[in-house]
Amino acid sequence: MGWSLFHPFLCMRIVLDAMGGDHAPAVVVEGAVQAARESGHEIVLVGDEARVRPLLARHIGDGSRSGLPISLVHASQTIEMEEHTLAVKQKKDASLNVGMRLVRDGQADALVSAGNSGAVMAAALFQLGRIHGIGRPALALVYPAAPNRCVLLDIGAVTDPKPEMLMQNALMGAAYAECVLHIARPRVGIVSNGEEADKGSELVRDAYKLLTASPLNFVGNVEGKDIGRGVADVVVTDGFTGNVIIKLSEGLVSFLARYIRQEFTRGVLNKLGLALLLPGAVMMLPGALLLLPSLRRLMRKVDYAEYGGALLLGVEGVVVIAHGRSNARAIANAVRLAAQAVQGNVPGAIKVGLDRLSASRYQPSATRGDELRKSSFVTG
Amino acid sequence: MGWSLFHPFLCMRIVLDAMGGDHAPAVVVEGAVQAARESGHEIVLVGDEARVRPLLARHIGDGSRSGLPISLVHASQTIEMEEHTLAVKQKKDASLNVGMRLVRDGQADALVSAGNSGAVMAAALFQLGRIHGIGRPALALVYPAAPNRCVLLDIGAVTDPKPEMLMQNALMGAAYAECVLHIARPRVGIVSNGEEADKGSELVRDAYKLLTASPLNFVGNVEGKDIGRGVADVVVTDGFTGNVIIKLSEGLVSFLARYIRQEFTRGVLNKLGLALLLPGAVMMLPGALLLLPSLRRLMRKVDYAEYGGALLLGVEGVVVIAHGRSNARAIANAVRLAAQAVQGNVPGAIKVGLDRLSASRYQPSATRGDELRKSSFVTG
After folding, report:
1. DSSP labels, B235-288
2. I want to staple B4 with a disulfide (CB 3.0 to 4.6 A). Which of A269, B18, B35, B40 is the partner?
3. Based on C-alpha coordinates, what's the Rg of chain B?
4. For residue range A71-113, what is the model confidence (pLDDT) as tens digits?
5. Considering only CB atoms, which chain A residues are within 8 Å of B264?
6. Separation CA B182–CA A311 (nearest Å)
7. What's the predicted TM-score (pTM) here?
8. Backbone angles phi, psi at B91, to 5 degrees
9. B187 has which bridge partners?
10. Nearest to A272 by CA among B329, B345, B286
């Protein structure tokens, strides 16, 4: 492997599930080429060789002369996007299972898939297993539609978590924020229907108490309007609410962008109809030229292709789930996110966090132990 | 009362809680004047006479010559915005309680308040009572940030409802859509984290079954991205999720509007810096003139001042809760919403819906009764 000349960190080997995603395998192969070219990381495509090899050849020929570090591992089975999660148990040789085993056996550093997210989570649990002490994994995303970056989780792994799971999500989200976004001592908030401590569902009020007692930098409730407004670096919620938040944000942004584009066009037409036909149109041009790139920047800000995907936290390895509709750029960005999570050692940071948490829990008994020692000193 | 010359419906008498809202009583009085002028409805301001009378005099003098149908009822106590809901029980002569009693005793048709929403709900329950058969009231809002109108509920009354309450919310939301938005046989959906029937939290999956078996026009799960996209006229959720949806939408729209304004300004400055300084600026003007009204229209679309407020459903009367930050226009729009709900007889429609629901439930036993009769005919 060795050091890349262009990147100040160790080159990694990232598994790409060639068969996952609405436009697989073509788009995944394209993304692999883009990722290898841009990042210098070694990409291991896992999937049906008969379908993947010709696609790859189209991009890099037989591979020997392209110099791109892309290899191919055959997997005889595929889990379809609509297939039930149980298929993961049945299809032992599915690309997802083969890929996860490469990560488990240390032959690769991380796995990226744009496949059925339920299946990816099941395969990760099945092949990699949970981190010892973690109740259930969580899916975490850097919330895109906001001025300040923050990690939002869980966005869909567990719809009915227990309060303890929300606290573990907080811990895992903090590890993500520290190791990947490089935020020191990240502020953790919990989604609620009001700022005050007594607001929230029963679940949220119970988790609030656990978070207050934890060693995390807990800053309290975060209302819907404040997500990504800089009040917290990690925003914790259950997988049901998190999923609604992400999908509502995506929907709203695309609606508003369309709305503004319509309004603008209508405005231009109105003005045109009014009077100075041709001179008017010429006068409009700079406005239009100005507005369009701005809209494009906005759309890019919330485009799943840009944020790379969600990090699956709580399993023994780095797994990134990209959007099912991913294009090649989204795949390449997901590879970049996976590499950052490996470099930052997110699973390791979660373990350290768990140790700190259990140490803080034993604090009272340790104090009692001190008292016991003192009293025995007095009596001794 | 008689018929208004300007409105094709009976004039109503609407109570306005003069003391409710961040800018009460000044803004509420201003809103009362605006509502009386525009709607022709009679407005009964309830509050501290010593504070309200002078404010009113500023707008309409002693009232005798203005011709505006505004009257004043004194209430010696006020429930502050931050006060605990329990205050409603203690302050019997609070403006909210006095106003609710006017509605209860048939001296007014509806009540509008921009006060502490917990207090308004408590006063409504306390003075008006629940509609027989309704488990808990719900707060319903016409979702503003979308191309298609739909009623979203509950947006904050009950954070941990039972599945039966979600079904009753569906019924009450359908009554709202029918009577106020005039949508025949409204399509009802439930917020979930996926379209498929097996998606959702335990609560949602249980409510899904009840809704499928009900006589309502149930169309299934609605994802976050599809709220207000025309897939359902009534979107049901729990008060926790509904509150997050509304606040996230408000927050996102104001963020995006700010973002676009910034981008635009930055664009203008960039271009200015580039070359044709003054001519460039002149060229920019039409674009700016075009963009600003479009942005303003967008902001108005999601402005709480425009949608008037939330309708409290499930109590024996019409109660509208306006945004705490309401300005005079918001108050006047809330009065208009209250009048529409009275005219459409929303509480009556809810009762009809409940009857239909329980009739559909007795259907199986009625069938069994028929069979019993048949068998006795055979044996008889």
Report:
1. EE--HHHHHHHHHHHHHHHHHHHHHHHHHHHHHHHHHHHHS-HHHHHHHHHHHH
2. B40
3. 24
4. 999 999 999 988 888 899 999 999 999 999 999 999 999 999 9
5. 290-291, 294
6. 45
7. 0.86
8. -90, 85
9. B217
10. B286
